[in-house]
Amino acid sequence: MKYDIVLLREHPELTARASEWFSSKWNIPKEEYDKSIAECIKNNDAVPQWYLVFDDGGNIAAGLGVIKNDFHKRPDLVPNICAVFVEPDYRRRGIARFMLDFVCRDMSSFGLKSIYLITDHTDFYEKCGFEYFCPIEENSGEFSRMYRRILHN
Fold first, then answer.
1. Environment class of residue 53 by beta-carbon count within 10 Å: exposed (0-12), middle (13-18) or buried (19+)?
2. Can you tell me the distance from the alpha carbon of 131 to that of 149, in angstroms, rounded to the nearest whole number?
3. Residue-averaged pLDDT of the chain
4. Which of 3, 81, 130, 138 has CA atoms 20 to 30 A from the CA of 70?
C-alpha cells in the first residue's frame, strides 16, 4: 500500500471528519480539534498543523498533529508532535514512521530546527530518529518521556 499524507491546511473540507476522528481516539473534545485545525488552515505558520493518512477505501488509517504544547509544563520545548494514532488494522506497516518523517520534513520547510513529543513508549521513537530528551511533567502532574528530533534544513 502506498501512503499519501493529507495536509489539513490544504483540505478544509475534512475538518469535521478529522476532528471527530481525533476526538474519538484521544477523548479531547471535538471542538478543541475544530479550533486547532481552523487555525492551521487560516494561518501560514508552522504550528498548528494536522495530517491524515487514508486507506484505499477512503477511511482514516492514521493521523497526527503538531501543536505548541502537548499538555506539559515546559513551554520552552516547542513545537510538539501530538495525537499520533494508527488504526489497529494498519499497525506494523511503517505508517507511523512514514508520518513522522513527513512531518519532520514539513516542519523543517518552515525553518524549524527541532521538534518534540511526549510519550510513555520506549524504543519506537528512537527507531524513528528521535532521542530521549528528559522526563517531563504533564499538566496532570504525571510524568512522561520527552523526545526530541533535530531537523535538517
1. buried
2. 6
3. 94
4. 3
pTM above 0.85, yes or no: yes
Question: What does the alpha-carbon distance between residue 103 and residue 3 come to, in Å, rounded to a whole number?
Answer: 14
Residue with cell 528521535: 130
The C-alpha atoms of residue 98 and residue 41 are separated, in whole angstroms, by: 23
In the chain, how many H helices and how many E strands? 4, 7
Listed residue (4, 33, 28) closest to 16, CA to CA: 33
Residue 84 to residues 41, 52, 123, 131, Cα–Cα distance (Å): 20, 10, 16, 17
State how far the Cα of 130 lies from the Cα of 152, in Å rounded to an integer: 13
